[in-house]
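Usage

Read records sequentially. Each one opens with the input sequence:
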Amino acid sequence: MDYTRTLASFCAGLTFDMLPEDVVQKAKLCILDYITNIYGSLELEAVKNLIEYFRAHNAGGAATALGCGFKTHLHHAAFINGVTGEAIEAQDGYRFGGNHPGVAVIPAALGTAEERKAGGKSVIEAVVAGYEAANRPAAAMHPWHTLSGFLPTGTCGAFGAAAAAAKISRYNETQMVNAISNAGYLLPLSMAEHLMGGFTIKIVQGGQAASAGILAAGLAGAGLTGTPQVLEGSKLNGGFTKITSAAAPKLEKLIDGLGETFSITDVYFKPYTACRHTHGAAQAVLELSNEEKFSLNDIEAIQVHTYGIAELAVGKGVKSHDSFVSAQFSIPYGVAACLTDGALGPLQLTEKRMRDETLIRLSECVTVSTDDALNKLYPEKTSTRVEITLSGDRKLTKQIDIPKGDPRDPMTETDIIKKLKLYAGKRDMARTRKVIELVLDLENVGDVGELAKLI
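and closes with the structure output:
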């Protein structure tokens, strides 16, 4: 079965008119949420330093470094815009693949569209096609790709970025096959070791994937070819899904329901600036804080019961000298921040906030363990139960089975607009409202450069 070619053929042939209304709306919300996260990430010192590095090496270009106030080369812009979409860790995600497609696909789509002066309909087509090309390989290997040491946002994201750039460029089926295949040769390793260790290079995975995908598509346009079986592999046994997964991939997920169901509709949004595996605990604590009366001094212990991959990925604590990446991937830190601040957003990830010894000491009261019953529900449900033991032997309990933002308990257009206005901070509100207006009417925008210059 030619899985790669079938997927590429679909992406090449996809048109705006064949997209259901809910798919178009979801694509626009993904773009709006992506812009929101750029604003949040620009508050981080590591992001500011990265942007200044590129600004110092800027040789001009036609693509906007979104929110940064300058234009640069398409590849550099895509890299920056992938980083800023990713760094705050409030990006969209696909739980069936463990990946975050938007931070690779959307920078590639917007950057290529701006350079080519393409309109909003083309961007929507590119985003939907790119999400298919990123999410389906990730789903075919989940969770074994991650457990083998890779981060699918970077690896599979490059396939999505290549498809998005190729779509904006109006490639035919053969060119689309080569764009996706070339991406398999150029994509980043995107090592999970860096994330698990809390190293800040983790934040570049979306940018690296976006840039690699654009390059893959560009080389396909220049006539360079790749194996048409890059995903499944040939008799040489070198397909991407085989060599990067400890278990046999489920190749049928690459094409099942193609054109009938769109993976973008299963994408979730994040109300908190932390790994999705922390969200059940964060939501439970915030709800308990609103429902019950207790003070921080009353807390004797906090137990978080969750599923296995959550304990593995985000069960560890943090120290005052750790990075914001460590905080984003720590249930104990997220729980403590929610209890002390009543929120888990950009302000909870600043160096100053992370140096608060009171916050760190509270996080040390949090223990995380795998609950066999909850583990059996994964991935259908990402269930987490929080038990807070208070003085006087009083105990508070709350279980969250489906965290807010999941399509089954979605963040609405209103929710995302509220999130954007919060993350926008002190930016000009009239300009912010115009950004929202253009994105929500994107199909009628003639040149996406109008949007880029406002972000």
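Summary fields computed downstream for this record:
- The first helix runs from residue 3 to 13.
- The first strand starts at residue 63 and ends at 65.
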